[in-house]
Every structure is written in structure tokens, then in C-alpha cells.
Design brief:
Elements (H helix, E strand, L loop, with lengths): L17 H25 L5 H30 L7 H5 L3 H32 L4 E2 L3 E2 L8 H37 L13
Helix pairs in contact: 1-2, 2-4, 4-5
Amino acid sequence: MDLSIEAGTTLASPRYGAVAIALHWLLALAIVGSFSLGLYMHDLPFSVARVKLFNYHKWAGVTILALSALRLLWRLAHRPPPLSARVLAAMPPWQQQAARISHLSMYVLFFAVPLLGWAYSSAVGLPIVWFGVLPLPDFVPVNKDLANAVLKPAHAYAAFALAAVVLLHVAAALKHQFIDRDDLMSRMWFGPR
């Protein structure tokens, strides 16, 4: 992510376009929902309701994977708007570097978490049928030892890592909004320009 300032930048940071903003918030809602559902269903006893929740979780994961791919393609084709001088003045170099690392980490985890979940589901022998309509191919062959010893914990660790980076991202945005008061959050919000 390029956080450098470009010549001619005004005090107010330009906003992202409507597509980037929509993808940001759709992905955010899907991740929070899927993570919350994963936490909720994890310790439920086996039942028809639990199987339904697992399917919803899988469907959310595939949706997150698709939204992540779309978001990455959009991001590669559309440079982010430059940060304003005011925002950059409030961000020492270590914060700018932390922003780059956290954004890169989120993009990696946007893909890693659902792919690990898909691999786990395949290794357990439970195929994914997206929204009960589109059967997806198995990502790995059935191997319950691999599923339980490697893929299940890797999916969980990656999900918690993503949650931690998202919380850091939210905390940084709130810091900019309420402490620095540099209007950075308006870059990724709907409304009049």
C-alpha cells in the first residue's frame, strides 16, 4: 500500500471510490459474521442445527474468498487515493510502516483463512456446496489426520490472527478519528464527497 503523499494534495484526503468502499464494508461484515458464527458453533453438541451452522460458515468463507479476490483485483487496477499532508503529519514513519504491514497481513489472511477452512472441510470428507447449489471441488484429498492435526488448528489460528489484525485496524482508524481528528475514516465511508 502506497502511503506517500503526492504533489498537489489538499488538506482533506481524497476518498476511495464507491466500489472500493462497498467491497471494504461487505468484506468487513462477512468476516465479523463468519468469525462470530465460528466462535458460537465451535462447542455446540452435534445436531441438525450445528450442521446447518457449519454450512452457513462454509458459505460465508467461500463468499469471503470471492469478495477478497474481487477486492484484490479492484485494488490492483485502482491506486488508492493519496493521504493528505495532515494525515501524514500525524503519522510517524513507524505508524506508516505498521499500516503497510497490517494491510498486507489482512490481504494474506483474507485468502488464508477461507482456503484453510476449505482444505479442512475437504480433508474431513465434507464437501462444500455453496448456498446448497454450487458444489465446489475438494481442495485436498480426504485425510482425517491431516484435517485434525494440521488444517483445523491452522484455520483457527489464522482466523484469530485475522481478528487481531482487524481489531488493530479498527483501533488505528478510531485513533485517527477521535485523537488525531484528521478525518481519515471519511476516506472509506459512504456519503457526499
